[in-house]
């Protein structure tokens, strides 16, 4: 008798991702996958919740069968009493699954961008450091289709562009470090897999705290949409994310090719050439130029680019536009100058 259908589903998702990692690793290192010296290390980021515990168990099962080394890392955000004890319990559970190395990393969460963004930034910084320290080829994250739907709704609520609506990528980070095997699986499948394997899980109280925007989306927003529109909202939003990502990738590629044609011999942006571009392409060129000049991507919002765009499309002699990172954009003699200071 085979495994429970939910267990089989999560294992298949992880097996596919590990196969991709092995292929990427083999191309990078020029070795055959079966060679021991070329066996990559894959870490799972685990909070102890159902999604990440299901992911950890699937990694522990599939990795040895594919010749992949498997480890784990848990991040202690220090935002709740006893969080250090919780992290220690997760370390024990991961080791019981057979993962090695397993590490716990304590972080200090700042305030910039709000509590959710600050915790996310601290978490990814810790995961990056752990991957570098252990020489990991990839870090697996347990985001599900439900998480993807929530991300799309958050983007819609903020009036963000198509890149934000594209949600989370299956592969992201430097050199494709982060992999999300569960984006096509729902949250209930992961929880059922844990129950079928008698895996203890921890339900983070923050996930039910209405003080957090994502929690309100999860417990109020999505249920209200499903009540009004019927079942299938989560699947539709996740599908929207993939379609939006395909469109955003195409527009980014177009902007990359167009950028060379809107610069003069000295590399300055020509306003007339920019004006001739479709708005979606032009704004991408402007965003790329602002980031290149030193404006932090995470702080550069649509409203900033719209103001710069008006220097091209609505020129009335207006003054310079101040952007994050002390970057200034101004129009000078038919050229757009974007630079620090």
Automatic annotation (TrEMBL):
Keyword ATP-binding among UniProt keywords: yes
Family matches, as InterPro entries: Rossmann-like_a/b/a_fold (IPR014729), TilS/TtcA_N (IPR011063), tRNA_Ile_lys_synt (IPR012094), tRNA_Ile_lys_synt_N (IPR012795), tRNA_Ile_lys_synt_subst-bd (IPR015262)
Cellular component terms per the entry's GO annotation: cytoplasm
Signal sequence annotation: none
EC number: 6.3.4.19
Domain tRNA(Ile)-lysidine/2-thiocytidine synthase N-terminal: start-end pairs: 42-220
Pfam family, one: ATP_bind_3
Alphabetical UniProt keywords: ATP-binding, Cytoplasm, Ligase, Nucleotide-binding, tRNA processing
Cell location: Cytoplasm
Binding residue positions for ATP: 47-52
Molecular function per GO: ATP binding; tRNA(Ile)-lysidine synthase activity
Domain tRNA(Ile)-lysidine synthase substrate-binding: 269-336
PANTHER family: TRNA(ILE)-LYSIDINE SYNTHASE-RELATED (PTHR43033)
Biological function: Ligates lysine onto the cytidine present at position 34 of the AUA codon-specific tRNA(Ile) that contains the anticodon CAU, in an ATP-dependent manner. Cytidine is converted to lysidine, thus changing the amino acid specificity of the tRNA from methionine to isoleucine.
Family: Belongs to the tRNA(Ile)-lysidine synthase family.
Name of this protein: tRNA(Ile)-lysidine synthase
UniProt gene name: tilS
């Amino acid at each position: 008798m085979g495994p429970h259908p939910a267990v089989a589903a999560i294992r298949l998702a992880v097996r596919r991702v590990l196969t991709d990692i092995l292929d990427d690793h083999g191309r990078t290192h020029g070795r055959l996958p079966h060679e021991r010296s070329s066996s990559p290390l894959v870490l799972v980021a685990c909070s102890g919740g159902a999604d990440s515990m299901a992911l950890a168990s699937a990694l522990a099962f599939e990795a040895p069968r594919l010749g992949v080394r498997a480890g784990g890392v848990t991040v202690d955000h220090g935002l709740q009493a006893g969080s250090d004890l919780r992290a220690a319990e997760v370390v024990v559970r991961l080791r019981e699954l057979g993962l090695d190395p397993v590490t716990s990393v304590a972080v200090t969460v700042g305030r910039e961008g709000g509590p959710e963004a600050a915790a996310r930034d601290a978490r990814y910084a810790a995961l990056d450091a752990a991957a570098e320290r252990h020489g990991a080829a990839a870090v697996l994250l347990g985001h599900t289709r439900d998480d993807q739907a929530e991300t799309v709704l958050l983007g819609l609520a903020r009036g963000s562009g198509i890149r934000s609506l594209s949600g989370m990528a299956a592969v992201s980070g430097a050199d494709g470090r982060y992999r999300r095997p569960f984006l096509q699986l729902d949250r209930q499948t992961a929880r059922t897999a844990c129950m079928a394997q008698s895996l203890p899980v921890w339900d983070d109280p923050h996930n039910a705290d209405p003080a957090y925007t994502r929690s309100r989306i999860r417990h109020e927003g999505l249920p209200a949409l499903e009540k009004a529109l019927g079942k299938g909202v989560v699947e539709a939003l996740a599908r929207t994310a993939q379609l939006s990502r395909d469109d955003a990738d195409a527009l980014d590629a177009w902007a990359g090719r167009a950028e060379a044609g809107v610069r003069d011999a000295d590399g300055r942006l020509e306003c007339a050439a920019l004006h001739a571009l479709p708005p979606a392409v032009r704004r991408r060129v402007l965003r790329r130029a602002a980031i290149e000049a030193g404006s932090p991507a995470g702080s550069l919002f649509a409203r900033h680019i719209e103001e710069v765009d008006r220097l091209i499309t609505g020129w009335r002699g207006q003054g310079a536009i101040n952007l994050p990172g002390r970057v200034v954009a101004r129009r000078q003699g038919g050229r757009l100058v974007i630079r620090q200071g």
